[in-house]
Structure to design on (624 residues):
């Protein structure tokens, strides 16, 4: 149910009158300039220091802004939770609107400012679209209660997230909506979406104003506005940064002058912009100069409608290459052929000789492929991608590259994977990845930009010849996508949901965590029987009772039954070699029990257990 607003508003008429209108500038820049450190919640200042926020609004009004934005860019539950303020989401937004409303008076309109949530949403992240809308709604309801005249969705990179915010507003209100994205130096969003695609898509939703803000200075933004104007008749807005920041004495400084911004305002108008303001690094002085440029235009400006080309908002994805033609592994998976693989850890240092020799033995033993592990443990080892290229070139056996999302942003992942495809790598095992422990060099930092589900979606697009922004690539990749399955997960419901999402995203096969109790795998598989996806079981030949104790108690995703502890303890009393032999025997028994319910086997050869893993591989070959 939509809500109306009681506060008198000129906003709709401003949008429709054909004139040029002035927005305000940066809020965060002004807050920082007035002595508030960035470690505080700037949105929380609406409650803690409302006089400061109101003074900034008033300065923008005095500088000539006809429309100001509430101090709520990050006032959503997720971002506020970092400051312990999530429960005050509605109150902060309501108060911010009231503060801006008081500073605006009767002649200036107030837009409720809403920025990205700060998390990726599906298909590139774990947050569902419905959940994203619910999070935005909490902010929207507070702003409506505070009597905003409209909304501005700003600094979005993901059109999917922007659309969820737009629909969340439309569910609650029929007030005007400004939709703005942020772009890089190439004029595209970080997802690669072009200005033409943004303008066409956002206009189709019914947005009142479409535009761009932040990230770049006026020169790049001018080109973006020109390109948007070619494909839409929707009013356009532009709020550039004060140029690109420079680091001076460890501080980020914006050095572009107000005069320069004001001069570009006229060019923005000529390009097609009707709503002009500023973003990072701009202040009341910049807005004053923009206002001076606008005042020289006494009559409504006729924006030239240069509909030179039409950009499709939805692209027909090419079909993927059939699985059986992607790789030899893909062919065996598609035909239901049982697969054997061994997991190898890349070497320390740059000499691959030992790894190559091991892989040759694995090939001779009859394995179909070799899984190249990417280890999170310090000190660093050779990366899995170049190691896989070496193995395929030197040994002549297909590899499955263990590829974690940890410590890589999406752009880097795409670059890695396009390079892998060009190098002949076609099989991947995607994992989100565990944070690395601290190594001997420096404290290890870890971050996850997108998880394995999001990356599966990205690669599914690459296989169709599309980047995450929906732009066509010159060629498509042919990746066979594997995903992890934790059949002994503590939260079984969550694991089942994630597996379904992985399959929906485009996974071709699943690989279990090491199986020490086939009964646990038997119990889990009925939960995902509807997925109809091949399962590769993993076995780890134990070397000692101590190793079993460590794996069971300290490694997530591994459970070892008491019976195996008893057998390993008894064997160890007879000697080290007897313990290793018993570990192989236990793994072989597990294989024989597991064989009927899986389509493949992966043997782990980690931590110095290559000899035992190779012995197990030979024994498995004899039993088939």
């Amino acid at each position: 149910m939509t809500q109306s607003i009681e506060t008198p508003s000129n906003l709709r008429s401003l949008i429709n009158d054909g004139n040029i209108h002035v927005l305000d500038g940066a809020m965060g820049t002004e807050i920082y300039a007035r002595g508030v450190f960035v470690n505080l919640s700037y949105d929380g200042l609406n409650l803690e220091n409302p006089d400061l926020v109101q003074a900034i609004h008033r300065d923008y009004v005095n500088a000539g802004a006809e429309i100001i934005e509430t101090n709520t860019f990050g006032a959503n539950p997720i971002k506020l939770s970092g400051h312990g303020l999530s429960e005050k989401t509605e109150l902060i937004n309501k108060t911010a609107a009231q503060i801006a409303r008081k500073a605006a008076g009767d002649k200036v309109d107030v837009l409720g400012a809403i920025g990205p949530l700060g998390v990726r949403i599906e298909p590139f992240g774990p947050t569902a679209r419905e959940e994203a809308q619910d999070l935005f709604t909490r902010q929207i309801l507070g702003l409506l209660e505070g009597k905003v005249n409209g909304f501005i969705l700003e600094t979005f990179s993901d059109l999917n997230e922007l659309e969820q915010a737009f629909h969340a507003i439309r569910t609650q209100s029929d007030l005007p909506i400004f939709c703005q994205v942020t772009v890089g130096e190439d004029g595209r969003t970080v997802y690669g979406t072009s200005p033409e695609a943004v303008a066409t898509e956002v206009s189709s939703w019914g947005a009142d104003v479409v535009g761009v803000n932040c990230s770049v200075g006026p020169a790049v933004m001018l080109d973006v506005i020109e390109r948007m104007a070619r494909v839409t008749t929707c009013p356009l807005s532009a709020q550039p940064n004060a140029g690109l920041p420079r680091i001076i004495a460890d501080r980020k400084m914006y050095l572009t002058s107000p005069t320069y911004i004001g001069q570009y305002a006229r060019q923005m108008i000529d390009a097609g912009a009707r709503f002009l303001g500023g973003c990072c690094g701009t202040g009341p002085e910049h807005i004053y100069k923009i206002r001076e440029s606008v005042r020289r235009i006494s009559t409504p400006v006729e924006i030239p409608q240069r509909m030179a080309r039409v950009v499709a908002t939805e692209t027909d994805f090419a079909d993927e290459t059939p699985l059986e033609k992607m790789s030899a592994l893909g062919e065996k998976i598609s035909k239901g052929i049982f697969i054997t693989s061994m997991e190898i850890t890349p070497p320390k240092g740059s000499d691959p000789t030992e790894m190559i020799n091991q892989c040759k033995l694995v090939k001779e033993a009859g394995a179909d492929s070799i899984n190249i592990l990417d280890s999170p443990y310090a000190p660093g080892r050779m990366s899995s991608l170049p190691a896989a290229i070496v193995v395929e070139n030197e040994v002549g056996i297909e590899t499955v590259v263990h590829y974690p999302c940890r410590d890589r942003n999406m752009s880097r992942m795409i670059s890695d994977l396009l390079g892998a495809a060009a190098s002949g790598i076609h099989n991947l095992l995607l994992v989100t990845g565990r944070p690395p422990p601290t190594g001997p060099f420096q404290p290890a930092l870890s971050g996850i930009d997108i998880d394995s589900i999001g990356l599966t979606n990205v690669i599914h697009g690459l296989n169709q010849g599309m980047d995450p922004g929906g732009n066509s690539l010159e060629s498509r990749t042919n990746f066979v996508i594997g995903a992890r399955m934790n059949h002994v997960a503590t939260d079984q419901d969550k694991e089942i949901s994630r597996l379904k999402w992985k399959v929906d995203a485009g996974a071709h096969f699943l690989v279990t965590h090491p199986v020490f109790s086939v009964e646990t795998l038997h119990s889990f598989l009925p939960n995902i029987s509807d997925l109809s996806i091949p399962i590769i079981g993993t076995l780890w030949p134990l070397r000692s009772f101590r190793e079993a104790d460590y794996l069971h108690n300290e490694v997530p995703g591994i459970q070892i039954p008491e019976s195996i502890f008893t057998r390993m303890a008894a064997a160890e009393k007879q000697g080290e070699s007897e313990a290793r032999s018993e570990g192989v025997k236990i793994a072989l028994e597990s294989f024989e029990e597991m064989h009927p319910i899986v389509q493949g086997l992966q043997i782990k050869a980690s931590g110095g257990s290559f000899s035992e893993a190779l012995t197990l591989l030979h024994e498995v070959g004899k039993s088939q």
